Automatic annotation (TrEMBL):
Leader sequence residues: none
SUPFAM superfamilies (UniProt xref): Acyl-CoA dehydrogenase C-terminal domain-like, Acyl-CoA dehydrogenase NM domain-like, PG0775 C-terminal domain-like
Similarity comment: Belongs to the acyl-CoA dehydrogenase family.
Domain annotation Acyl-CoA oxidase/dehydrogenase middle: ranges: 173-268
Official protein name in the record: Acyl-CoA dehydrogenase
Domain Acyl-CoA dehydrogenase C-terminal: 452-563
Native organism: Parabacteroides acidifaciens
Stored Pfam families: Acyl-CoA_dh_1, Acyl-CoA_dh_M, Acyl-CoA_dh_N, AcylCoA_dehyd_C
Limits of the Acyl-CoA dehydrogenase/oxidase C-terminal domain: 283-444
Amino acid sequence: MANYYTDIPELKYHLNNPMMERICELKERNYRDKEEFDYAPQDYADTLDSFDKVLEITGEITGEIIAPNAEGVDEEGPHCANGRVEYASGTKQNLDAMVKAGLNGMTMPRRFGGLNFPITPYTMCAEIVSAADAGFGNIWSLQDCIETLYEFGNEDQHSRFIPRICAGATMSMDLTEPDAGSDLQSVMLKATFDEKENCWRLNGVKRFITNGDADLHLVLARSEEGTKDGRGLSMFIYDKEEGGVDVRRIENKLGIHGSPTCELVYKNAKAELCGNRKLGLIKYVMALMNGARLGIAAQSVGLSQAAYNEGLAYAKERKQFGKAIIEFPAVYDMLSIMKAKLDAGRALLYQTSRYVDIYKALDDIARERKLTPEERQEQKKYEKLADAFTPLAKGMNSEYANQNAYDCIQIHGGSGFMLEYACQRIYRDARITSIYEGTTQLQTVAAIRYVTNGSYLATIRDFEAIPCSPEMEPLKARLVEMANKLGACMNIVKEAQNQELLDFVARRLMEMAADCIMAHLLIQDATRAPEMFAKSAVVYLNYVEAEVEKHSSFIHSFNADELVNYRQ
């Protein structure tokens, strides 16, 4: 049977990145848990070995259980009866296997029953699972909502809720409403304090809630009567054991059929405040969404891998005109670009997750003691990088997942349009990735300030200073010219001092920056492991060089007066 970890050597390569030593040192607090927990690692090598073993177990479960169940789950889907959700039979088997293997609460401290893993190996597990069944990936990976509860909840909440997640309880984040999708400031689910019972009561409707009948929910609700903006919103914890929330229906979706997307009715549901009032949207949801966006980036990379695997296998087997279609340039061109996008997107995903790991670990240490000036500087550096890279990782990987799924079907030809081939499920599942947890357009809004303030360009210039192999030097020289074009386009738009123009070309600027960053990361990877990445580095550079030139030409020739022609 396939192992979705050991069969993809690129994953182990990213697990062994040099930054991981610092990450493990911070996360393990210099390996102090070894005195209290017999399964805690002794040192860095032991930590990596632990990651490797858990990833291998995840890959084995994915290959032997989740992947074989995927088509049945897609066909059966979850059911809704009497206000409750019942998962598809294959989903139940998947959850049972993951819980029995101890793969829940992975990032939580050992004192709560977690594995104390950094975000990076956990994100790899999310990618692995999503490569087999993206819908199940949603259900399982929503456990990372516990990160927000751990970060902002109190000790009593930690002790009551975190061990349940580590033991296998499911989670959801209840944000969206019928009239509040991307605009979460418009959330109107009402939270009122019950003086008699000394608790909060929630009333209203939530819509498009992934895994909406979960055991524990983080809920965004309006706690300040008379307010209409984000300053009146707070975050609440709802426990299904308390009752008061019914599933009105499960949405009938294009893809990710195994993941129940629910409309929820809150009827005087008992809840408790998480953190402080009024900070629900402006602080807690932002943290929650950043974690979720990294999760969708991982899901997207998993789908990209699945699309590439299906396309490659079919191209090798399918014969036309007397030979396998992979021998035709039109086909191997598509496959090479699919692989290059996969490798580039994965490099960006794990660069981002490592940035998140360092600043999150230092944040956690700061709850125990005061950070040194050097640690504080390190924390600020990586928080800024994580904030800048997260919208790129989510935006670009979700777009690449869609593109790879499209090309996978094209390689299959007419067979790809038939439901018995997995590529159509991958295609349908991929479509949501560029929509939920913030559309690509919203990722552009989050990223554009890092274009205009020069942060991305500064990072690219830092990458230019990193030595590479002689074989990669010509590619790197071309990348310098690409970065120069990005800088010139930035200057043109900034000098125009036209906000509408900036908003109009923001997607192009973001993609130019992301293209340069991912190409640099691939060159670094190809320098360290040419046998894995050298081909992709060449193919990707050729691909994005043309993309950057296309965007540059558009921005240089565009006249802001022409905007009137684009308004409908």
